[in-house]
Structure formats: structure tokens, C-alpha cells
Amino acid sequence: MSTHDLLILSAVLGAGAFVESVAGFGGTVMALSLGARWFGIEALLAWFLPLNLGLSLVLALRGRTAIEWRGLGTAILPMMLLGLAGGTALAWVIDAEGARALFAALVIVVALAEIALQVTARARAADAAPRLLPMMFQRALLLGAGVVHGLFATGGPLAVAVISRNIRTKTALRATLAVMWFVLNVIVLSRLAVRGHVHADSLVASAQLVPAMAVGMVVGEAVHRRTSEEMFRAVVAGLLLVTGSLLLHASLTR
Length: 254
Known about the structure:
By secondary structure, this protein is mainly α. The protein has helices at residues 3-23, 27-35, 41-62, 69-91, 100-123, 135-152, 156-163, 170-194, 200-208, 210-226, 229-253.
């Protein structure tokens, strides 16, 4: 890997680690939406996911007393794993590079959905509990999130649309999501290894990116403690909208 590529990847994956440390999700979609202008999606996942497993493990251990194990085991993971199976099957027949436009459109939809959620949240009274979604709709969203995660390892925003309405505190949300990402990404990483995207050279590249990942995690932890999560999500949504639009334009004009 050239020094130029290493610098770009350090910035991209460091940004992903920062976002994941603050909000508990969005790190992979941020890293892919930024990095896909220079690198292939499968290669980015091969570099990012081994580091993301370590990040998820650290975040889960830090918030272990706040993890919502019951909801995770009985409602969240079963639907996500079912969707992941479908997404993994699709990943064998869909070329990730040929699906760049689809991924870009997904990023834009996620950003717009997050902005809509922000507007809705501000319209509610500050002390009002979020309205729970109908159970069938929750299951459908989690299933869809699993499918997206099987394809691009970026099902977080869809899953959080459901999970954040059931887990109120940001620390519990982040720790619970960290456990979920760890389980799901072990499976995604196994698929990438079987397809030959994860190998000795890719793991060496991942090791070179550990410092950037560590910096992103440390800075993100500080922001997580001090910054309003709602404000940060609004900034992330805006950035995703811009990067998704740029990626879509590049995909359609190449």
C-alpha cells in the first residue's frame, strides 16, 4: 500500500471509528461513502471490519453493565440474523462494484430518513417518550437492516430507527449495538474471507490503520460524553447526504 493510499484510508477509517464511537452506529456507512471514491467497496470492508470488531468489543466492554441483553437476544438479533442470511445470499450474486449506485442511493435515503427523524424529534415535547413503531413494522425494518448489512455491512441506520425507540440512554444504545455489530460482522468477515477479500495482505493493511482507528475511537469517546447525540446525528446525516450525492454522481457518470 502506498503512502498516499495509507493517508487516505487513515482519514476515512479514522472518521468511521469516530462516528461509531460517538453514536454507536454509522461508522461503516461513513467509511464506505467516503472511501468508495478511491477504493472498492469489498476492499474497504476487508480493511475496516477486522478493526471494527475490535472497536465493537471495546465499546461493549465499556458499557457492559448497560447492555440490553433481553431485547437483543429475543427481538433484535433474531430478525437481523435472518435478514443477514438473505443479504449474504444476495452478496454472492450481486457485484459490489457494480452496485455502487445502489449503495450511494441507500446512503442518501438513510441520510434523508435520519434528517426526518431529527425534525420529528424536535417537534415532540422534550420530555415526551418516542412513539413505538408497530411490532410488524419493527420486525420488517430489522429484517431489512439485516439484508443491507449482509450486502454492505451498513445496516446500522435502519436498525437504529427501531432500537433507539426502545433503548432510551445513549450509553445503553451504544453498548447494545456494539454487541450486535460484533456478532453480525464476524459473519460478514467470514464471507469476505471465503471470497478471498480478506487475506494476509489485507490484514497487514488493517494493522497499519490501527493508529488512525485508535485516534478516532479516543476522540469519539470524548465527544460521546460531552456532546448532544441529537446534534451530532444531524451533522452526520448532513455529511452522509453530501457524500452519498457525490458518490451517486460519480457512479452514474463513470
